Each structure stands twice: as structure tokens, then as C-alpha cells.
Amino acid sequence: MPQPPQGPSPVPLTRPRCGEDTSQESRFGCPGIRVPGHTECLAHLIDPDRDAYLAGLSPGADIDHRGTTFTESLFAALLNALRDPATGSPRLGVANFELATFEGRVGCESAVFEDEASFESATFKDEAVFRTATFKDVTSFHSAIFEGTTRFESTIFEDGVRFDSSTFEGSARFRMASFKGGAGFQSATFKGGAEFRFATFERGAWFQSATFEGFAGFGSATFAGAAGFGAAIFKHDASFVSATFEKAGSIGPLVCAGRVLMSGATFGSPVTLSLTTQHLECRRTRWSSTAEVRLRYATVDFAHAVFEYPLTIAAEPDPFVLADGQQLAETSLAGELSPEVRLASLRGVDAAHLVLADVDLSRCLFIGTVHLDQLRLEGACTFDAVPPAAHWRRWPPVRFTERRTLAEEHHWRASQPGAVRGWNVAVLGAGRSGPLQLAPVYRALRKALEDSKHEPGAADFYYGEMEMRRRAEDIPRSERRLLTAYWALSGYGMRASRALAWLGAAMLLTIVMLIAVGLPTDTPKQTATGTVPADGGRVTFEIDKNDPKNPTGNRLTGERAEKALNVTLNSVLFRSSGQDLTTSGTYIEMLSRLTEPVLLTLAVLAVRNRVKR
Predict the structure, then answer these.
(1) Tell me, what's the pLDDT at 270?
(2) What is the rounded CA–CA span in Å between residue 310 and residue 376?
(3) Sign of the CA dihedral 52, 58, 61, 66?
(4) Using a CB cutoff of 8 Å and minimum separation of 24, what contacts does 255-260 make?
(5) pLDDT at position 396, please?
(6) In b/e form, how buried is each residue of 76-107, taking b as 16+ CB within 10 angstroms?
(7) Tell me, what's the pLDDT at 325?
(8) pLDDT averaged per 10 residues, the chain (length 613)
(9) CA 463 to each of CA 404, 430, 439, 492, 495: distance values in angstroms, whole numbers, following the listed order
């Protein structure tokens, strides 16, 4: 893996500093390096000597002005002395400005640094402009302080450059900068906005432990090598919109108190994202290899993302651990939000390669997701639930049985006339959703859970699917009535209590009706009739039984109740009790033997669906 650039080696101190070994008290303490042939630095040379020194410079000359304090006019005069007549741009050889102080505006537009350039520990008290400059060799701004706006727009760094431990108190603009060697920004502090839009990092960029106090923009940037953001802290939004990560390997772990925006980004190699942030937006991203997105605190939007290989979105239970074994500090987020990860949208996604682990899906939008039946849910993936308790302030009263539901169903039900309280209407981006769109989503999620052997969870989605079918407008009225009966009797074979309640009611009704009109007054007795031949021959008898007589008088007796219960219990098991019944009782038993076993079967089926693995 490429390593961060090391920067130019410090130039040995070969000349004494300004004012040393002299009696000029005004020069005492000046850190500036003496100008060759003089005892003072460039800032303290008298005008004739300074003019003579500048006149002796030519384009491409090596300069060493470490520790020198430059005013705006003095630095401009130095660049003019190095200006190439052929191009009109300053051209420098080895340039050493370590510990230099620039009190005015530094204008290095279109300057060309042909050899090593060092601005280590330099201080820029005003605007520093290196727009369209070219650094052809190793360059270092290590520990530099930029108190004003810094502009490196369209600047070209042909070899490694270091901004490690630098401080940018104003805005730092690297728009369209080209880093052809490694770019090191480790432990850098950006107090104003930092803009790297359209920048190109050809051999890696290192922002480990960097702090961005303002907005950080890496939109449309290209990371051809490593993208090191380990332990980086973003106190505002961080934008990587339309960025390209060709061989990033890993991004993070980092902390962002605002949003991490990656919409339109492209990932061309296996990558791991480790992010602690409030919001991660990955709309229309393209993942051309395997990837793992590990998150804390985040709400994630993956709408219309393209996954060509398996991608995992997982919640990290504990703070991320850095390379040195220390936990990533989360002080900017801890205490404000739950560390849970919430998925906002999968619309337009092909979920065939998607794995979700320990993710909250209660507000996730699924309508429009392709191959949702191949989605893999691992760990504790949670969904929304129906409104709790019974609702009596409407007619008829309603009580929803607890089950997993989708955010779009909440939105649709909340928009219906007479909707009970508890359905969430504020579902961002739900748009047009209804039973026609929700039924196939529930069906696909049911199949996904069934394939993973999670039958109890699949049962909830089967219930949701049947609910949407029952309320859809494209099914015949007869089928809708049949589904309504199925729902009322047993909750689509998912509610054992409802089926058992109907079974108990049917048995009670059967018992009452048998006691009232089904059992005869007395048990019919057998009679034998025949003719005895006069000659004493063979006697033939015909045995018959009297028709049962309808009951009269007192019917509510213990004996009749016991017989009715016996007939009813046998009917539940689809058996005949053999009890003598009236004509009405016979029909009651037939009806009981038809309906009650069905209700018992529905109850058993509902229990099985809840405990099956």
C-alpha cells in the first residue's frame, strides 16, 4: 500500500541568521537566514543591497529565505525577479521558506517550482494564492499556518506534497487540484470550509486525524489510490458527491457530526466504509466490487444505488477501534442520538446482492425495489408495528393485532378517511403508495424470510400481503368478500385466538340449538312386529324404531346438555356421536361437522405458523 509522502529533507543551516555576530540590536532575534554576501536577511537588507540581490536572480534560481518575514511588496519583488520572460510566470529552483512569515497577500499564481519546495512551519497571515501553480518535485507545507483564505485551485503537484499538521483558519480551496504523487493532510485542521471538488489524487490521499470544522467538499474528486480518513473528524457536512474511489480499500473510521453525502459516487474495488455519522446519503452510487458499510448513529439512504457484487450494510454495536487500539471518539454524537442504524430507502435498488444486519427498517421505503425476495436479513432487523391498544372513538371499534409493517403502509393508512391515531403519515418520500404497490412488496419480503427459515417473521408479511390484497381495487368483489371472511374467521390463518374464539362460539351455539330443538324428548324405543303362523311354523319379526319426537316442556336439563356437548365435541373432530337426533338436530350436527373442524384446523395452522422454524 502506498505510504504518505515524507516531504523534502530540511536544508541544513549553512549560514548564520540575520543579525548574528553583529552589533545591530534591531536585528537581534530575527530568525531570517542571511542573504549570501550580507549579514542581514532579505527583509532587513537596505534598499540598494536588496535591489542588487534581486537583480542578480534569474528564472529557475535556488532560493533560501528560511525564517524571513515577507511583506506583500517584498514577496512580489522576489517573484518578479524570478519571472520567466518567455512564459510570464515565476520559475523557481529549490525554494526554502521554512518558518517564513508572509504578512501580506501571497500571490503565486502560475508559479513553477522546478525543484524541492518547502514552506514548513511557515505562517501566511493573509490570503495565500497558489492558483495554477506547478510543483514539480517534493513539496512540504508541514505545520504551516494559513490565517486567511488559501487557494490551490488548479494547482499541480507532480510529486508528493505534505500538509500534515497544518492549520487552515480560513477557507481552503483545492478545487481541480491535481495530486500526482501522494497527498498528506494528516492531523491537519480546517477551521473554515475545505473544498477539494474535482481534485485528483493519483497515488493516495491521507487525511488521518484531520479535523474539518466547516463544510468539507470532495465532490467529483478522484481517488485513484488510498483514501485515508482514519480518525478524521467532520464537524459539519462532508460531501463526496460523484466522487470516484478506484482503489480506496477502506474509508474511515471517521466521525461526522453532520451528513456524509456520497450520492453518485463510484467504488471500483473492494472497500470498507466505517462511518459514525447522523446521515449517510448514497443515492445512485455504483459499487463495482464487494463492499461492507459499517455504521453507527446513521440514517442511510441507498435509493437507486447499483450493486454488482455482494454489499453488506451493518450496524456496529461498539465504537470503532483505530489502528493503535484506541476507540474512535464520538463526543460530537454521543448522547444526542441512538447508535442504531436506520435505513431510509431502498427504492430502485436491485437487492439480489444486498445483506442487511442489525438495521432498523421501520422507516425504510421498499416500493420499487427489484429482487426484494432475495434480500438477506441478518441479526436484529426491526420493522415498524401497528398502532397499539384498542380504539373505541370510532365505529366499529378496532384493535390491531401486533405485527411487522412497512413505512409505506403507515403512510397509506394514515391518509385514509377515518384513520385511527398511531399510523405515521410523516413518511418522507413515500409518494404514491397503496395496496396495489404494497402487496408485491410484502410478498417478496415474506419469501425472503421464508428462504432464511424465519417463519414467524414471514407470517407477519403474509398477513400484510393478504391485507393489501383484500383492500386492493383490482380484485373481483367476490374474491374480496372471500378474503374478508378469511380475515374475520382466523386473520388469514395467522390468528389462532380469533379462530379459537369463533370455534368456541360455534360450539356454544351448536350446544344451545341441540338442547333447544336437536335432541328428542325421549330416546326412541325399538318395536318388533310380525305374524305367528297358525301351524306354529317360523316366526318373522320386523324391528323398527319410532321417529324421534320434538322436545316439549323443560328442555334445559343436565342430561340434555351432556348429550348436546357430546354431539358437539364429536362434530369438532368430524365424527358422529351416534346420538338420536330430531330432524333439526341432524341438520345442526351436519353443519357443525362441516364448520367446526375447519375452525379448529385454522387455529392449529395459525399456531404452527408462529412456532415453525
Answers:
(1) 94
(2) 11
(3) positive
(4) 255/328, 255/329, 255/330, 255/332, 255/333, 257/332, 257/333, 258/234, 260/234, 260/298
(5) 63
(6) bebbebbbeeeeebbbbbbbbbbbbbbbbbbb
(7) 83
(8) 62 62 53 88 91 93 94 94 93 95 92 96 95 95 96 95 95 95 95 94 93 94 93 94 93 92 95 94 95 94 93 93 86 74 93 93 91 91 80 62 84 76 67 83 90 80 87 82 82 78 80 72 61 66 60 62 67 61 71 76 74 60
(9) 9, 21, 10, 7, 10
Enumerate residues 6+ apart whose C-beta is below 8 A from 251.
Answer: 227, 229, 245, 271, 272, 273, 274, 275
Enter the C-alpha cell of residue 125: 497571515
- AA letter at 109: E
Q: Which pLDDT score, from 0 to 100, does residue 51 have?
A: 92
C-alpha–C-alpha distance, residues 178 and 201, integer Å: 7
Contact 355, 310 (CB under 8 A): yes
Considering just the CA atoms, what is the radius of gyration of the chain in Å?
42
Q: What is the pTM of this model?
A: 0.82
517 and 613 in contact (C-beta within 8 Å)? no
Report d(CA 379, CA 356) in Å as an integer: 8
Residue type, 606: A
Amino acid identity at 349: V
Contact 158, 135 (CB under 8 A): yes
**Consecutive H or E run containing 50:** helix 47-55
> What's the pLDDT score for residue 452?
80
| Cell triple for 8 | 523534502
CA distance readout (Å), 453 to 312, 495, 609: 20, 20, 12
- Cell representation of residue 526: 325399538
Residue type, 450: E
Residue 588 CA to residue 569 CA, distance in Å, equals 13
Q: What is the 3-state secondary structure (H, E, C) of 395-461?
A: CCCEECCCCEECHHHHHHHHCCCCCCCCCCCCCCCCCCCCHHHHHHHHHHHHHHHHHCCCHHHHHHH
* Grid cell listed for 155: 494547482
Q: Is 591 helix (H, G, I), strand (E, B) or coil?
A: helix
